[in-house]
Amino acid sequence: MLGFTSNLLKPRRPLSFFHDLTSKMLMSQSTSIPKKQERVRDHGFDNYMEIEKKNRKVLKFQSLIISQPSQTLPTSRFDSLARRLGLGFKENEAAAYLLKFPHVFEIYEHPVLRILFCRLTRKALLQMEQEKEALNAQIPDAVTRLRKLLMMSNTGRLRLEHIRIARKEFGLPDDFEFSVILKYPEFFRLFDARETRNKYIEIVERDPKLAVCAIENVREREYREKGLDAEDTRFSFIVNFPPGFKIGKYYRIAVWKWQRVPYWSPYEDVSGYDLRSLEAQKRMEKRAVATIHELLSLTVEKKISLERIAHFRMAMNLPKKLKDFLLQHQGIFYVSTRGNYGKLHTVFLREAYRKGELIEPNDLYFARRKLGELILLSSRKAKVDKDLVSYRRDREVDDIVCVRPDYMENNYEDFRDEDEIEHEEKGKDGFISDILSDNIDENEVMDEKEDTV
């Protein structure tokens, strides 16, 4: 009796407390899939990125050599240039690193200066020429990709700098501002914003024929080939969880419910909708998944770094904590931290790959993979002289072995088909550290600045 009386005498909690509790419960139910998910590694994608790490280093050395008027460079200069690029080489290691890839770099003795120089091999030059030809051949497709990318933005415009940073992923040439934007004035408009003094690309007219997502074509194919239920496939995505991902009974039910949730298309204008209701929040969350899915589908290799997706966050209504959001949908996307000492996050579209290879490759993908093939070729397969000439350390030249220029095979027909300038911005667009939500410091974003040289 005394306990009952004491409970009556306790001060009652205000109604605002129960209102806040109810609102928190509703917000936690904005999606049926649990938000806190641990990342499960997929070694197929991680191994892919390990090769990409070597590709990036080789590409930076290639750009240094090609930028020279004679397309040759003394090996003694690579140490200072590597430190400027921040490649992490110790003293006298950069030039020796080139010897690991004899099918890409050729070390020879200058006939006049009598010091070691480096130039690209015939196979490396042919690979670069093939990639350039493939890039120019698919410019009409790149124009379509850029039009669809602009149509997904809220205002139909994107910053020129953001497109320039991601130009390689979308198959745009380095001079795309002139060869694509200004060449097709019926599709694009280039202008300067007075308030921010930034250049923007704007689409001239939206084409309803282009407002079809790649996932819609996949759904139609799945429905016709497999004869699945129309209600289950109407708003569903292809889900393939990585090996070792634990799928419980209730999680499977949650995914099934989420697959049936309707959503607005990434190409649809949602500015006139009331987004405060719980149903609207569910649709917007699933729309964000569809937007990232379509963004990856527009890329050449169906992958792009998370830091570059962050540049389109405001224009495409993407969530602030992108990494947590992507980890919530590991069956659709895979986030790899390999390839750049954990400082670069690469997002893959899982359904586009099988066993580390692109299911529907293109000529540009093949040309880029050939560089990886040259890098992976063992140095034992190169025709090198048994007696490598050693040089004593001079004032300007370090101890490096010399490889004669005739060690490379001239035949390129037996080469099998396999697989920047970048400036990360600060200021108004310095929200990347907020997007990568698991304690990513500024060094991880600044790491992509290596391509600015």
Automatic annotation (TrEMBL):
<feature type="domain" description="PORR">
    <location>
        <begin position="40"/>
        <end position="378"/>
    </location>
</feature>
<dbReference type="Pfam" id="PF11955">
    <property type="entry name" value="PORR"/>
</dbReference>
<dbReference type="InterPro" id="IPR045040">
    <property type="entry name" value="PORR_fam"/>
</dbReference>
<dbReference type="InterPro" id="IPR021099">
    <property type="entry name" value="PORR_domain"/>
</dbReference>
<dbReference type="GO" id="GO:0003723">
    <property type="term" value="F:RNA binding"/>
</dbReference>
<keyword id="KW-0175">Coiled coil</keyword>
<protein>
    <submittedName>
        <fullName>Protein ROOT PRIMORDIUM DEFECTIVE 1</fullName>
    </submittedName>
</protein>
<feature type="compositionally biased region" description="Acidic residues">
    <location>
        <begin position="439"/>
        <end position="453"/>
    </location>
</feature>
<feature type="coiled-coil region">
    <location>
        <begin position="118"/>
        <end position="145"/>
    </location>
</feature>
<feature type="region of interest" description="Disordered">
    <location>
        <begin position="416"/>
        <end position="453"/>
    </location>
</feature>
